[in-house]
Write a structure and sequence with these properties.
With 103 residues, the chain is mainly alpha-helical. It is built from 6 helices and no strands.
Length: 103
């Protein structure tokens, strides 16, 4: 059984597990399936907006696909959430990526 199938099976057993949803999105990126990865990241962030690590990966995916406006919005939302949960490391990483994109 491949990793995606195993993760999907585990997610079916624990549908609210943010880590599994994040891991699935990353696996789809590895396969080059940005559409599925985006879907999993967006579902995750809709359900758990404080899962700040996913904002960076989703924004990078959006950048790669030429959707600069959505990438900027995603970095900004991630920075807001990182502040809210007091995750300075994530905030700095998101800010750095945003600055790299916009300057």
């Amino acid at each position: 059984m491949d990793r995606i199938n195993k993760l999907q099976e585990m997610l079916a057993q624990s549908p609210g597990d943010s880590f599994l949803r994040h891991a699935l999105a990353l696996e789809f990126i590895k396969r080059g399936d940005d559409l599925q990865a985006r879907r999993y990241f967006e579902e995750l962030l809709d359900a758990n907006p404080q899962y700040v690590g996913s904002y960076y990966h989703l924004a990078k995916l959006l950048e790669r696909n030429g959707d600069t406006s959505a990438a900027i919005q995603t970095y900004e939302k991630g920075m807001e959430q990182a502040k809210r949960v007091q995750d300075q490391h994530a905030f700095n990483e998101l800010r750095g990526a945003l600055e790299e994109l916009t300057f």
